[in-house]
Amino acid sequence: MVLAVWTKLLSDTSLKRSSQTLTVLGNNAYIYGGELRPREPVDSTVYHLALNPTTPANPTIAAATAIASPSTTPQPRVGSASTTLAGKIYIFSGRGGIALEPIEESGAFWVFDPTNNTWTQLCPANPESPFPAGRSYHTLTNNGTDTIYLHAGCPPTGRLRDLWAFDIATRQWRECAPAPPPERGGASIAYAEGKVYRMNGFDGTREQGGAMDVYDPVADAWSTVSYSADGMSGPTPRSVGCLLAVKVAGRPCLVTVFGEHDPSSLGHQGAGKMLGDMWVFDIELQRWAQVEVEGESPAPRGWFDADVVVSGEGRSSIVVHGGLSESNERLDDVWRLEF
Predict the structure, then answer these.
(1) d(CA 331, CA 16)
(2) Could you give phi then psi for residue 164, rounded to 5 degrees?
């Protein structure tokens, strides 16, 4: 077991939503998009949360601040994905409108710059070059310097297992080797120790589990670390959870928390079985350990978002926001998980 502590930072009805993005830059978190009612994207407001160090005397955030909308904003959307690179937030596609069709923007990102609270659209340098199609419930990560990785998700019909790399300096997309089957939405990826890690997701019939798929950018090839997804030696299958790279006791690890297991018969209109467990994967040992929590914990959930906060001492913690509860209620809380 790995020991950890949850701290509740905030509950704010203005933040009640699922299928949103949460991205952290320094000690600041930014929330964008999502839905409060099924198939109705909320507006394009960006909310800012100052993630001050938590202490027993000051464990919470006073409030979330809505950033005044600039003249140029993305179309409201759900099921988007975000990542941060070079001090900016990158958003790709998602679903928009009542029909919730994937938003097709010809391989472009929306980029939010928190230094001046502006949105710009970053388009590929050559519009004739191949680019990933619009989609929802995909996932993004980056290598920390110049490349964003985009994986899987749901196009207008079916699901995908593709992997694309975008160089932000040259503004060029490159299609990488596809991940192992099956195709899926709601998967999770993270970049750590020079590689991209992928797990979980929903293939249209069942949640995936029992495999940590690893992409090597140098070899442009995938390998797989198999494990028993029995909830004792490894996490059970799930989708719409998260996978985040953190240091735990100084060791490079991946952390997955929560997610949905057994989808609702109502599809996007309902909630399935939500999970409340947390697991740490030691990258060097290639072994899972379940996280034991001291004190209060968030309610089980899926369709939320989370990101990593790194302190000045190099310690990592995880911030989790919102999502969908098993009672089919959108959640408005923000929590911090510290190891």
Answers:
(1) 5
(2) -125, 150
Model pLDDT for residues 29-59, shown as the tens digit of each residue: 999 999 999 888 999 999 999 997 555 455 5
Report how far residue 90's alpha carbon sits from residue 111's, in angstroms, rounded to the nearest whole number. 5
> Do the beta carbons of residue 176 and residue 165 sit within 8 Å?
yes
Q: Is the peptide bond before 217 cis (omega within 30 degrees of 0)?
A: no
- How far is the CA of 84 from the CAs of 6, 109, 130, 168, 307, in angstroms? 24, 12, 23, 12, 10
The predicted pLDDT at position 97 comes to 73
As its CATH architecture, domain 2-327+330-334 has 6 Propeller (2.120)
* Structural domain boundaries in the chain: 2-327+330-334
CA-closest candidate to residue 89, choices 67, 40, 137, 122? 122
Q: Counting Cβ atoms within 10 Å, is residue 77 exposed (0-12), middle (13-18) or buried (19+)? A: buried
Alpha-carbon distance of 319 to 339, in angstroms, equals: 12
Element (H, E) at 258: strand 251-261
Q: What is the mean pLDDT of residues 66-74?
A: 92
Residue 172 host element (H or E): strand 172-175
Q: CA dist 335 to 111, 152, 259, 305, Å?
A: 26, 28, 16, 11
- The answer to whether the pTM exceeds 0.85 is yes
pLDDT of residue 14: 95
11 pLDDT more than 70: yes
pLDDT at 100: 77
CB–CB of 151/165 below 8 Å? Answer: no
Closest CA to 175 of 123, 212, 215, 223: 215
